[in-house]
Write a structure and sequence with these properties.
Number of domains: 2
Structural class: mainly alpha
Number of helices: 7
Distance between the termini: 33 Å
Number of strands: 0
Order of helices and strands: HHHHHHH
Radius of gyration: 18 Å
Length: about 140
């Protein structure tokens, strides 16, 4: 997974390369992370994913309302780089079915294990769990 140090390095590279849009989004991301760290006392790496997720959601809303622009695409790509890869529906189905085979159709146990997996879409996993046959 990407970390805060890599974010800072990428920001400096973008400044040196005069990549205005990248500098803009990364400096905003860094500022938001620093503010959140001071507010809550969490580590930079802990705050990075939550903040990048929030930025991604906001950028996607802007794209949905106003349409995609070159700047919005650059922003989205830069922010998504710091997020864990999201699992595909097939990957989620395989994991859910595997856990059902291991634990039976015990929703509490299966969902608890799923929470610890990077890139897990819990809403989709829950739907797949409900539709799955007994283990």
């Amino acid at each position: 997974m990407k970390n805060y140090e890599q974010l800072q390095e990428r920001y400096l590279m973008a400044r040196k390369g005069n990549e205005k849009e990248t500098v803009s989004i990364l400096s905003t991301l860094i500022g938001e992370i620093e503010l959140e760290v001071k507010r809550n006392g969490k580590t930079y790496d802990e705050v990075l994913v939550a903040t990048a997720t929030k930025f991604k959601k906001n950028i996607q809303q802007t794209i949905n309302l106003a349409g995609a622009t070159p700047v919005s695409i650059i922003e989205l790509v830069q922010v998504e780089y710091y997020l864990p890869k999201e699992l595909s529906e097939d990957e989620i189905r395989n994991v859910v079915y595997g856990l059902i085979m291991k634990h039976g159709k015990d929703q509490r146990t299966v969902m608890s294990e799923l929470k610890g997996i990077d890139g897990m879409n819990m809403k989709l996993a829950s739907q797949i769990f409900r539709q799955a046959p007994q283990g």
